[in-house]
Write a structure and sequence with these properties.
The complex is a heterodimer. In chain A, strands 1-2 form a two-stranded antiparallel sheet. The radius of gyration of chain A is 24 Å and the shape is globular. By secondary structure, chain A is mainly α. Chain A has 15 helices and two strands. Chain A has helices at about 1-10, 10-40, 55-65, 65-95, 105-110, 110-115, 120-130, 135-140, 155-170, 175-185, 190-195, 200-230, 235-240, 250-260, 265-295, and strands at about 40, 50. By secondary structure, chain B is mostly helical. Chain B has two domains: about 1-45, no CATH class; about 50-260, MetI-like (MetI-like fold), CATH 1.10.3720. In chain B, helix 9 (about 180-195) packs antiparallel against helix 12. Chain B is globular, with a radius of gyration of 22 Å. Classes of the chains: A mainly alpha, B mainly alpha. The interface between A and B is large, with 87 and 88 residues.
């Protein structure tokens, strides 16, 4: 009897405990481990050399031109990826918001990119981008937009862009669904009132729709930024950061340093720099969002 | 309007269709210039060759890892979801925020420490390493989703059950959890899909061929000099099918679960 009473009294904590332990494992352990490792020399190729080296790893990073290129690419990648996903998601969400028969089917069909395993999506796009037999080159040539096949993933100028397109394609369904749900909560009367006042279509979108979906739009942007900045699989599987680091992002850089150069200390430091960059961006968003709340 | 939507869907779903069509072509037809859209003759050769060898093993590996991960994530997630929504603790808001913070982490940040940890416990090249890892990083999002969902289940339901003589725990089992079924279904799909599709950790932790999961197995079809695309696409179709089917049948629940918490009112 006492045992059950005990459980009942502490039930809340018991329920939550495993999840919190898991959380600590996911957040605290890697964080501290990385911080610890970043100040050590930990090269698996030279197991004898280990010990505290202070900021040497960080200095090595800042002196590495590939690292600097990776930072630039990561920023470019994130800006293009997030903007692209939103630019595709919003108009489609607006279209799906119109009440027409069978729109549930269309919405489901448009989820397919998001649902496909990233490995499958990556390989399918590699195949589509193929220089000799790829369908994209074929279509572009049929439309007379290009004259000869382009080796999209093999050329410095096009590699990053090509992967960004795959990323936008794969990721847009998430903001599309979120924005659609948000659009559906806007009551119709507001639009009708605007019609009575003689508002144009454009005015209705700019003055009613966009402001009302702003919270969801902001939330989506935050998530998309995080996920895009952190993305690894598609870039790795499509270009491995090449050619010649043209599509090298911070994620591929960290992976290469850890599992090709086996320099775990340097990998940890670069991972931490990545995390700090992301935190700064998110902090800026958080401030931006809370300012808007105050205005309301 | 329908015409517009059909065009959009066709453009967006084109890569998926392209994957399907390529998988049904005989290998010669994948290497024609100009390429053909629909296969001129349907050949199951891609599928036959894809399933040859270790592929069935990869499928089984992926399946049971995903199922165990989903089960574990659900149990722990439901517990935490009920805990956070029904009880006030000091710092419970902080914890909930902390859960959101975990979404921030690049998986790359986790790879090195986890690799070190797993090798210390001798779990490299064992499936347990993946199950633990997948549970760990699915859990925050699952807890978040389930938490927002459980918030929408009114507490009065449990209280009236308890007035009728049910224990608190019993009320949770008989009332709360069934009421939250769509959210639970959505979370289950999310966890399963995440484990099924995962690549980075499977690539890093596993070595031997027999241990591989589908995403890793898929990569072995890329040859050093040339790739047989019809075989790779066939293997891709097999890998994608369970997930796509799940979504086709359950997308309503999933979308409801995903959006219920974030949209006010």
């Amino acid at each position: 009897m006492n045992f059950y009473r005990l459980i009942d009294r502490h039930l809340g904590k018991i329920l939550v405990a495993p999840a919190l332990i898991g959380l600590a494992f996911v957040v605290l352990y890697p964080l501290f481990m990385n911080i610890f490792m970043s100040f050590q020399e930990m090269k698996l190729t030279r197991p004898d050399a280990h010990g505290w080296v202070g900021f040497d790893n960080y200095k090595a990073l800042l002196g590495d031109p590939v690292f600097r290129k990776a930072i630039g690419n990561s920023l470019l990648w994130t800006v293009l990826g997030v903007t692209g996903q939103l630019l595709v998601a919003l108009p489609i969400a607006l279209l799906l918001n119109v009440d027409f028969r069978g729109r549930g089917f269309y919405r489901g069909a448009l989820l397919i990119p998001w649902v496909m395993p990233s490995v499958v999506a990556a390989f399918t796009w590699v195949w589509m981008y193929d220089g000799s037999f790829g369908i994209i080159n074929h279509i572009l040539m049929q439309l007379h937009l290009i004259e000869k096949p382009i080796i999209w993933l093999g050329k410095k100028d096009t590699a990053l862009l090509a992967v960004v397109i795959e990323h936008i394609w794969k990721g847009f369904p998430f903001p599309m669904v979120m924005l659609l749900a948000s659009l559906q909560t806007i009551p119709k009367d507001i639009y009708e009132a605007a019609d009575v006042d003689g508002a144009s279509r454009w005015q209705k979108v700019m003055r009613i729709t966009i402001p009302l979906i702003m919270p969801t739009l902001a939330l989506c942007t935050v998530f998309l930024t995080i996920w895009t900045f952190n993305s690894f699989e598609n870039i790795w599987l499509m270009t491995e950061g090449g050619p010649l680091n043209a599509s090298e992002t911070l994620t591929t850089y960290v992976y290469k340093v850890a599992f090709q150069s086996f320099d775990l200390g340097k990998a940890a430091s670069s991972a931490l720099i990545m995390l700090s960059m992301l935190s700064v961006v998110i902090a800026i968003y958080a401030i931006f969002i809370s300012r808007r709340q105050e205005v309301r | 309007m329908h015409l517009l939507m059909i065009c959009i869907v066709f453009v967006i779903d084109f890569p998926f269709l392209w994957m399907l069509f390529t998988s049904l072509k005989p290998v010669g037809e994948t290497m024609t210039i100009p390429p053909t859209f629909l296969p001129r003759s349907i050949s199951w050769d891609g599928f036959i060759r894809a399933v040859d060898g270790n592929f069935a093993q990869y499928f089984i590996n992926s399946l049971y890892i995903a199922l165990i991960t989903t089960a574990a994530a659900l149990v722990l997630g439901i517990m935490a979801g009920i805990g956070f929504s029904r009880y006030r603790f000091r710092g419970s808001r902080g914890f909930q925020l902390g859960i959101l913070v975990t979404q921030l982490f690049p998986l790359i940040l986790l790879v090195t420490p986890y690799y070190v940890l797993m090798s210390r416990f001798g779990l490299i090249d064992k499936h347990l390493s993946l199950i633990i890892t997948y549970c760990a990083f699915t859990l925050p999002f699952c807890v978040w989703m389930l938490n927002t969902y459980f918030h929408s289940v009114p507490v009065d339901m449990e209280e009236s059950a308890m007035i009728d003589g049910c224990s608190r725990l019993g009320a949770y089992f008989r009332i709360t959890i069934p009421l939250a079924a769509p959210g639970i279904a959505a979370t289950a799909i999310f966890a399963f899909v995440l484990a099924w599709n995962e690549f980075i950790f499977a690539n890093t932790f596993l070595d031997s061929a027999a241990m591989r999961t589908l995403p890793i197995g898929l990569r072995t079809f890329i040859g050093q000099y040339s790739t047989e695309w019809n075989v790779l696409m066939a293997a891709s179709v097999i890998t994608t099918l369970p997930v796509v089917l799940m979504f086709v049948f359950l997308q309503k629940h999933f979308i409801r679960g995903m959006t219920s918490g974030s949209v006010k009112g």
